[in-house]
Every structure is written in structure tokens, then in C-alpha cells.
Amino acid sequence: GDEFTILCEDLTSDSDAETLAARFSAALGEPYIIDGVEVMITASIGVAFADHHRTAARSIEDADAAMYKAKERGRNRIEIFDERTRDATHSRLTNQTELRHALDAGEFVVHYQPIRSLDELNATGVEALVRRRAADGSLIGPERFIGLAEETGLIIPLGSFVLTEACQQAQLWRGDRKHESLGVSVNVSARQISHGGLVDVVMQALGDSELPAEALTLEITESTLMGMTESPTTLRQLRDLGVAIAIDDFGTGYSSLDYLRRLPIDVLKLDQVFLQDVATHHATEAIVSSTVKLANTLGLDLVAEGIETNEQLDLLRHLGCPQGQGFHLGRPADPRVLDFDAPAWIHAA
Fold first, then answer.
1. Nearest Cα residue to 78 out of 89, 60, 66
2. CA distance 218 to 197
3. Structural domain spans, the chain
4. What does residue 293 show for φ and ψ, rounded to 5 degrees?
5. The domain 98-324 is classified under which CATH number: 2.30.40.10, 3.50.50.60, 3.20.20.450, 3.30.565.10?
């Protein structure tokens, strides 16, 4: 893997250890030339002190716990092990075990939020959103478990489950003439892309469900796309299958827009942060308007996320945004009770 251990002798203080660790970090941070391309790497470093009370295995575990703490605090930093780190590690391992048991026990469910045409308000598609059902029947949102699933690798089987469920459900809906052109969007994480088996998983899900590839959209966050060297090849393989690729949280990646030219992108999903004050802040309105024009110029579909008020809806219509989703247009729901009709309090343009 990409982890290794360094044994150092004659260090007597945290300061000595941090100084040496900083030298290692600086050495690793030197640029490397690979196939003529300059590559930079960073390191998250955990430091633990050994003594006659600790076994070698225990010391390595402590250093590993400190390394994970460094990752959690933003990566590319140094952390010294202490007892609070041990408590956090124990909690993380407990949560990891609980998450694995939840996956094995079938506690995860997929809900769906409608994506609507903003003019006619008809549902053009749905986004699949995973939830965990607690013992008391309540639902636990993804913010409580996705980060841990990503870190531990459990996102691979969890993501495959969501993709399979979403394809099967979408094909079931498409059997009704009213929804025969319905599409489904599924979020894909950085770990799923880097794992290398995503294309095979997608092919399996499409084949088992008989869902046409053009009815499936895979959503990848802008920040994930920028950090993944595997993205171009994987995205092109998925596009070759006929699957559409959407950039989720568009506008928050602080990156060059050159990737819109280089990569096979089909859909932009405008991050909900731009809708929070779009009706009252001229600069935000200008950003949304420019994004609409950008999508039109590049021939991309555009979906505005996080529509929560009629005022936002009216302004997006005025700016020419074609599609959107949000609580105002329909909340995520169990597929058995999902209402494809527009809420009664809003009307077609």
C-alpha cells in the first residue's frame, strides 16, 4: 500500500520527533518527474513513542492512530499520539464494525428525490440517496456514515448496492408508460473510482436490471474529479457504455474549467450554495446566469440543486435554468410512496 513505518532511536521529546518528521515530509514533498510530468505528493505522519511498557505492535498501532488523526485534520500534517487519539481510534473502529454489520444486515435503503423540468414541473429523473435504517425505524442520513465508509473501503460494497438498487427501481418505474423516459442519477465516490472496478459494477447493474445505459447518470463531485488521476480513463469507459456523467456541486471546486473541455461531461449540477441568496445578491445571480450560459454554449444539461423557495424557482426560470431539484420540488422518499406529481403549492410556468 502507500503506508510505511520508520523506526527512529534516541529521540527524547515531542519536539525532536516533530522536527525529524518534518524533514521526512519535506523530502517526500520534492517533485517527481514521471513520464515527463511533474508529480507532487504529500504525507500524513503519525508519531508514537515506544517504551518498555509497550510492545512493538502496540507502538505501531499508536502511530497508525496518530496518522489517521492527521488525515482527519486535513492531511499533509504531523500528529503526536496521545490517549485522546486512542479513544478516537477505538470509537472509529467500533463505528467501522457497526457499519459493516449494518451492511451485512441489510439496514441500508435507497430513497429518491425527483429532478424536475422547471417549466413544466414534470419529473425528468430521480437522484438515488442512501439512508440507514436504525433499530427504532428512524433514518440516518449519509453525513453520519459516508465519510467512514469512504475511509475504510466499505464504500465499495455500499456503492455497488446503491447502484444495483437504483437501476432496478428505475427500470421498474420505466415500465409505466408515464415514466418510460425517466432517468436515475447515482453518486460515485473517489474511492469507487480509484478502486478500479467501477466500470464492471456499472455493466453488471445495467445488465441485471435491463436498464438502458442512457437512463443512468453517475454524479461525481467537482473536488473528487480534480483529485483523481484515474478519472479521465474511467469516465471515458463509462461514456463508451452510454452512461452520462454529471459534475455534482459544480462551482465549489476552486479549479480550472479546462476539464469541461477535456473530459466527457454531460451534466452540470449547480451547487445549492449559489441559491441561498440568489434572489437578493446581484453577484450570485450573475454567477447562476453565467453558468446557464456556459452550459448552453457547451451543450451540457444543467440542474440547479437545493431549490427551497418559490422565489428561487421563479428566478431560475427567468435565468433559463432548465431543471432543478430541492425540497420545494419534492423531498427524498421511499420509492413506494414517491410522488412524481409536482407539489400542489407550485405551478408550471
1. 66
2. 15
3. 14-81, 98-324
4. -65, -40
5. 3.20.20.450
pLDDT at 150 over 70: yes
* The pLDDT of residue 255 is above 60: no
Residue 92 · residue 68 · CB < 8 Å: yes
Q: Which is it for strands 37-39 and 32-34: parallel, antiparallel or unpaired?
A: antiparallel
pTM across the whole model: 0.78
**Looking at residues 56-61, what average pLDDT do you find?**
82
231: pLDDT strictly greater than 70: no
At 269-278, the pLDDT tens digits run 999 998 988 7
Across-strand partners of 323? 117, 303
Average pLDDT over the chain reads 88
The reported pLDDT for the residue numbered 256 is 63
Single-letter amino acid code for the residue at 54: R
**Domain at 14-81: CATH architecture:** 2-Layer Sandwich (3.30)
* Alpha-carbon span 243 to 123, nearest angstrom: 19
Ramachandran sector of residue 300 (left: φ over 0; alpha: ψ -120 to 50; beta: rest): beta
Question: Which own/partner contact pairs does 341-345 have at CB distance under 8 Å and 24+ positions apart?
Answer: 342/116, 342/121, 342/122, 345/310
Task: Name the nearest CA neighbour of 316 among 339, 285, 342.
Answer: 285
Which pLDDT value is given to residue 1? 47
